[in-house]
Design goal:
- This protein is an alpha/beta fold.
- The chain has 2 domains: 120 residues, NAD(P)-binding Rossmann-like Domain (Rossmann fold, 3-Layer(aba) Sandwich), CATH 3.40.50; 203 residues, 2-Layer Sandwich (Dihydrodipicolinate Reductase, domain 2).
- It is 34% helix and 29% strand.
- The chain has a 9-stranded mixed beta sheet.
- Helix 4 packs parallel to helix 5.
- The longest helix has 19 residues.
- The relative contact order is 0.16.
- Keywords: Oxidoreductase.
């Protein structure tokens, strides 16, 4: 693309931005960090200095008004995603927004509509979907490498319950385990199945000590053909992140599915009485996410359409309804 780079502004100084997304953008050949905005001016300046960024704004509005910014990354607390994504779109900026995109499917559709009307690209930041291992796994399934699909298992848990001031434990800010980590196995199952689920049943631990957000949840997500995802997720359990896909003639393990290490195998295939490891792809999934975003801005078909986020939020809505009402919920 002739050395062209997508110019980024970062709205907020969340840990995910500073520790993962910004370093990935900085090392990308298609993207460049141009500005940071933080309501804590000193923090914003410190982040900018860390990455050699000249511009550090004390108000988000100032960043959106900068004509030299093409795209923004939004890692703000969940309840602020909708407002700032729509304001960014109205300012003509492309939007990469942290997961969950928003707090429900209605808000997700509003964001999609606003970005489409403004002619900007919108993407939900699920970095793991850009790792080549996911495409390899899906192709292996499509080619019949494990026979017919029978079941999927997935989990993403960690224990941070002692940090009472954490924003994940603010119900009015969109806190909760399903929003924070449950979205990962849920999107992975949708990716593998290549269709939407039919029903969900979820049980959750809503903790009064954590503003009654869901600190743990376990569920069954039903797909057509008798295939289901069984999953658990939460913020008050030992650390795990994995997906296992079971077929009639084999199974695929995706170790450390969402946060793989440098030496983590792409997958482990058990089939025909043999075990085979696919070697680790030496990639930064956050950089690949940024590169794919840039290509979509420049006209390539996006790997994941914005509407995918709406479908994902419909599933999350159903999971929360099931957990609160203690009932099986069918989806459209």
């Amino acid at each position: 693309m002739g050395g062209r780079k997508l110019r980024w502004g970062i709205i907020g100084g969340a840990n995910i931005a500073v520790n993962a997304v910004m370093p990935a953008i900085a090392q990308s050949e298609l993207n460049a960090l141009e500005a940071v905005a933080s309501r804590d001016t000193a923090k914003g300046r410190a982040v900018a200095d860390k990455f050699g960024i000249a511009k550090a704004y004390g108000r988000y509005e100032e960043l959106l008004a900068d004509p030299e910014i093409d795209a923004v990354y939004i890692p703000l607390p969940n309840h602020l995603h909708r407002e700032w994504a729509i304001r960014a779109a109205e300012a003509g900026k492309h939007v990469l927004c942290e997961k969950p995109l928003v707090l429900n499917a209605r808000e997700a559709q509003e964001m999609v509509d606003a970005c489409r009307q403004a002619g900007v690209h919108l993407a939900e930041a699920f970095m793991y979907r850009h790792h080549p291992r996911m495409a390899k796994v899906r192709e292996l399934i499509r080619s019949g490498g494990i026979g017919e699909l029978r079941a999927i298992r997935g989990a993403f848990t960690f224990n941070n319950a002692g940090d009472a001031a954490n924003i994940r434990y603010r119900a009015d800010w969109g806190g909760g385990g399903l929003y924070d980590v449950g979205v990962y196995p849920l999107t992975a199952a949708r990716y593998v199945m290549e269709r939407e689920p039919e029903a969900v049943t979820v049980q959750a631990l809503f903790s009064p000590a954590h503003d009654n957000v869901d600190m743990m949840a376990s569920g069954l997500v039903e797909f057509a053909g008798g295939v289901s995802l069984t999953f658990d997720c939460g913020m008050w359990a030992d650390f795990r992140n994995f997906v296992e896909i079971v077929g009639t003639e084999g199974r695929i393990e995706i170790p450390q599915t969402f946060l793989p290490g440098a030496e983590t195998p792409d997958y482990v295939l058990h089939a025909k009485g043999e075990r085979r490891e696919e070697p680790a792809s030496q990639v930064n999934q956050y950089t690949l996410q940024a590169d794919n975003f840039a290509r979509a801005v420049w006209g390539e078909p996006p790997r994941f359409a914005p509407e995918d986020a709406v479908l994902n939020m419909k599933l999350i809505d159903a999971c929360y309804r099931s957990a609160r009402e203690r009932t099986r919920v069918t989806l459209e």
